[in-house]
């Protein structure tokens, strides 16, 4: 393979959209077409007022910078495949809901369908890049599918190029990645394909940050990175439980531990639990892989990271109920934040959903405010989380509010579920005046000024602190 001049990305989601938009911006000499089977998603990417399908700071500027120039969004998947010399497969790989490995294994149906489509319509050689997070050896399956179905004179080289961006900071992460990882077969052809993709990234990433490894190492590195990041959070959250029981302060403990240069300060914030589409899914994937490889101790080790996360969410809901005199039936709870973290509208696996489900099961009334999540998404997620409750009855107990202040009006308690910056700047005096007394605050993200709130009169409970009330 020579120089890449046309790229197609299959999957216009949280990864495919931002990643390939940044490639287009940084490589004006490359034509990038992002294709998806979801018409409304593609329409939103093409929206004339730039109301894009995902919220990500800085994304709009990137798309404005190159859409219509060398960046295109389309539902014509076949044409996108045919014209490209390099194809990213960036489709979703959710946890399987049924069948073998249900609840653990990744559902590779979308990856396989996209791969089969490439084999069916390609009429020239392609570099096919696995961008989705997949279990080890998926590249091998892709290669078998492509090679068994290809036309004469079509060669396919497979690369693994997992994405390490984090939602909420995706554009910054893509502009200045810690590293770009490319896995390839260690054959002359594999290495040539790897060089071709390296040249694309080298337009803005320095070569010492572009790591080239074998295919399986690349695939496993992505699962390993997410497992170790999530493990840090579960470790801190496990310590937060000890802090609450002893009167220690998890912020102080994390700060002290993080000062050790071997540990480092980042990603040590205690919280109500991690969310997002990746951590849990990728760890479960690793657990499944370990079990398939007859490594039950390894599987149990990683599974505990997810179990600790579930425990943390459960523990937090229980603290709310316990603190409100053991019942929240009929009480009003304001939940601030519905996205799984700040600066995204993504709600997949959001801790907020679990908390609200628990509160609904206690027959509380809930008022929700989130600055980015669309209302339909909230109803969709709550209906999915509470299969025992018809949507009409959920809607009787839940109100979606236009501001934090509205949500807190007449509330018995307020819960910080997402660390949106604006929640630090709420007019607390006004909130206090309008809340029922005693006015309880539960900080699930450790963002509030506890002393200030206590002075106003709030009863404050913070994760990882004993007796702050
Ligand atoms: P997503 O669900 O937002 O986007 C996937 C898109 O692929 C959807 O729009 C879907 O319609 C489309 N699609 C599925 N099958 C298709 C087909 N055969 N032809 C054309 N389009 C098809 O998923 P997201 O979040 O972008 O994730 C994609 C992959 O990237 C996953 O494997 C995920 O684990 C991985 N990843 C996600 C990160 C994140 O922060 N969301 C970060 C790093 C990796």
UniProtKB/TrEMBL annotation:
Pathway(s) served: Nucleotide-sugar biosynthesis; UDP-alpha-D-glucuronate biosynthesis; UDP-alpha-D-glucuronate from UDP-alpha-D-glucose: step 1/1
Keyword hit for Glycoprotein: no
Active site, UniProt feature: 278 (nucleophile)
Domain named UDP-glucose/GDP-mannose dehydrogenase C-terminal: residues: 334-450
Gene3D superfamilies assigned: Cytochrome c1, transmembrane anchor, C-terminal, NAD(P)-binding Rossmann-like Domain
Reactions the enzyme catalyzes: UDP-alpha-D-glucose + 2 NAD(+) + H2O = UDP-alpha-D-glucuronate + 2 NADH + 3 H(+)
UniProt-annotated binding residues for substrate: 163-167, 222-226, 262, 269-275, 340-341, 445
Keywords attached to this entry: NAD, Oxidoreductase
GO molecular function: NAD binding; UDP-glucose 6-dehydrogenase activity
GO biological process: glycosaminoglycan biosynthetic process; UDP-glucuronate biosynthetic process
EC class (word): oxidoreductase
Lineage: superkingdom: Eukaryota
Entries under Pfam families matching the protein: UDPG_MGDP_dh, UDPG_MGDP_dh_C, UDPG_MGDP_dh_N
InterPro entries, per the entry: 6-PGluconate_DH-like_C_sf, NAD(P)-bd_dom_sf, UDP-Glc/GDP-Man, UDP-Glc/GDP-Man_DH_C, UDP-Glc/GDP-Man_DH_C_sf, UDP-Glc/GDP-Man_DH_dimer, UDP-Glc/GDP-Man_DH_N, UDPglc_DH_euk
Binding site for NAD(+): 11-16, 36, 41, 91-95, 132-133, 167, 278-281, 348
Cellular compartments per GO CC: nucleus
Keyword NAD: yes
Entry EC number(s): 1.1.1.22
Family according to the record: Belongs to the UDP-glucose/GDP-mannose dehydrogenase family.
Name of the protein: UDP-glucose 6-dehydrogenase
Species name: Dendrothele bispora (strain CBS 962.96)
Biological classification of the source: Eukaryota, Fungi, Dikarya, Basidiomycota, Agaricomycotina
